[in-house]
Amino acid sequence: MRVLAAMSGGVDSAVAAARAVEAGHDVTGVHLALSAKPGTLRTGARGCCTIEDAHDARRAADLMGIPFYVWDFAERFTEDVVDDFVAEYAAGRTPNPCLRCNERIKFEALLDKAIALGFDAVCTGHYARLSTEDGLVELRRSADDGKDQSYVLASLTREQLSHAMFPLGDSTKAAVREEAAARGLGVAEKPDSHDICFIPDGDTQKFLGNRIGQSPGLLIDDETGAVLGRHAGVHEFTVGQRKGLGIDAPAPDGRPRYVLSLEPVSGNVRVGAAEKLAVTEIVAVRASWPNGVPLDGPVECVAQVRAHGGTAPAVAELVGAELQVHLREPLTGVAPGQAVALYRPDASGDLVLASATIDSTA
């Protein structure tokens, strides 16, 4: 097959590309330039998609002896990922930019261009597995639970997944680093990026404040209705947050307070005790079905609400346009704007059933 390998400049995408070459595919490497003003250097594990990353990707491609290009997706990335991120926070929701990047950039914009140029598949360094059942592709968790990225891929369609390759799905991160070193790849020990790539200094609050501006509001005790403090905008908070609330005085009971809900219209941020964060009901919208099959009736599954962790057994049902999820065990820190992914455990590993955007909780 003709394969386009998305090479970020990190160890995972480099090893994924090398495995595609070793498997006999006709591989071309491509690095996506996602920023109009990329920094020249990254700082440790902060940020990605810098000029340094592009150079690392090119050196890896040269070592493999494959063609390599840099494609400018900065404008599309700004519109579909950065602007969406800012708008969601301004509306009092908590988005996942990595999920949006996979959906809109790597497996929409990039895949569409790859197919138009005659490539059969896009290869990435994601930790997830693809299997085939009755000729149809299915998305599953990776073998490395600690690195599994099926959650941020769960919004992809069956058609998109049929043109995807995830060569690292059966590997652990430790094994990938060892293989990179054995192959002589200079990125073998390069640290992973742990921050939002377009906020390399890690200061999300400052980034949002510069773009949204101030929209002052009140911190309200959910139990008593008392005003506990003031803030510069709901974009400074997310459900479940404890630190940095700026509360003027301790609560009467002396217990810490957490963000329970955000009200962007009034500007109020409601805070309360930890037990009020417990969620057992989720209503989600804009559902996607990576295996191409919508839920038919109530389905026993496992729900996941964060990229790592945040899982509980559940019963899910599609009611009209809403995906209604009843959690058999409560979860905390579940925020509108996040994604809920549904899994069905089986002998071949957890199968991804659906993904949808959380609209409300109870």
From TrEMBL:
Transmembrane segments: none annotated. InterPro entries: MnmA-like, MnmA-like_C, MnmA-like_central, MnmA-like_central_sf, Rossmann-like_a/b/a_fold. It is found in: Cytoplasm. ATP binds at residues 6-13, 32, 125. The keyword Magnesium does not apply. Keywords: ATP-binding, Cytoplasm, Disulfide bond, Nucleotide-binding, RNA-binding, Transferase, tRNA processing, tRNA-binding. The keyword ATP-binding applies. Its EC number is 2.8.1.13. Residues 280-358 form the tRNA-specific 2-thiouridylase MnmA-like C-terminal domain. Residues 205-272 form the tRNA-specific 2-thiouridylase MnmA-like central domain. Signal peptide: none annotated. Residues 147-149 are annotated as: Interaction with tRNA. One of its GO terms (molecular function) is tRNA binding. It catalyses: S-sulfanyl-L-cysteinyl-[protein] + uridine(34) in tRNA + AH2 + ATP = 2-thiouridine(34) in tRNA + L-cysteinyl-[protein] + A + AMP + diphosphate + H(+). Belongs to the MnmA/TRMU family. PANTHER family: MITOCHONDRIAL TRNA-SPECIFIC 2-THIOURIDYLASE 1, TRNA 5-METHYLAMINOMETHYL-2-THIOURIDYLATE -METHYLTRANSFERASE. NCBIfam families: PRK00143.1, trmU. Catalyzes the 2-thiolation of uridine at the wobble position (U34) of tRNA, leading to the formation of s(2)U34. This is tRNA-specific 2-thiouridylase MnmA.
